[in-house]
Design brief:
The protein has about 200 residues and is mostly helical. Helices cover about 75% and strands about 0% of the residues. It is built from 8 helices and no strands. The chain starts with 7 loop residues before the first helix and ends in a 6-residue tail after the last helix.
Length: about 200
């Protein structure tokens, strides 16, 4: 079902993780039911924000990107979000053999990657008003909840004791941070060097 568990991961994450563990579906199915649609939230919001609202540095006048320049950046960011979640899920599955003694179900690692990134996708709505401090606060709050979801979900979904789950979760968070920085900064750098920002007059 499209976007199933999305609300429950906020209202009752413990029960939702148990429900997700009991599902029998492929990692690709779970990925396609959630990530392509959710990744549109920051993409569309930031497109509107940088072309219609603009951003200002200090007391200067607002700066706006042209539609073409913003479109290129947003498409690249959307693609990197899709790739980032998939790679994240693969890393979680790859690391599972170090911490778990039971047979790895690839769906479980991908599910962790999908559902813990949902708060970050929703936080992308702050892009409608691209003010640095607002976006920083909203993103930090979403990241904190995502970290909580990792620590909550790993022992349930991967069926491992809490001591090993803590180490596993901490490793996952490290990978997530590296991926987030790499994908975000990489997209902006490629966009800036290959296409270059174009501003409205």
């Amino acid at each position: 079902m499209l976007l199933d568990h999305t609300l429950g991961i906020f209202t009752n994450p413990g029960e939702e993780w148990k429900s997700i563990r009991g599902e029998k579906r492929s990692r690709l199915t779970d990925f396609m039911l959630h990530v392509p649609l959710l990744a549109l939230i920051p993409t569309l919001c930031f497109y509107f924000g940088v072309t219609e609202v603009g951003w200002a540095i200090g007391d200067g006048d607002p700066v706006f990107l042209t539609s073409r320049s913003a479109m290129v950046l947003c498409i690249m960011s959307y693609a990197s979000a899709l790739a980032g979640v998939w790679i994240f899920g693969e890393f979680i599955n790859w690391m599972a053999s170090t911490y778990s003694e039971e047979k790895i179900d690839p769906h479980h690692g991908m599910a962790i990657a999908i559902y813990v990134t949902i708060p970050l996708f929703f936080a992308g709505a702050a892009g409608l008003y691209p003010v640095l401090w607002i976006n920083a606060v909203v993103t930090a709050a979403a990241a904190a909840y995502s970290i909580y979801l990792i620590y909550e979900g790993i022992p349930i979904l991967m069926n491992i004791d809490k001591s090993r789950a803590f180490l596993y979760s901490s490793s996952i968070i490290t990978v997530a941070l590296v991926l987030l920085v790499t994908m975000r900064i990489g997209s902006v750098l490629v966009w800036g060097m290959v296409f270059g920002p174009e501003y409205q007059n």
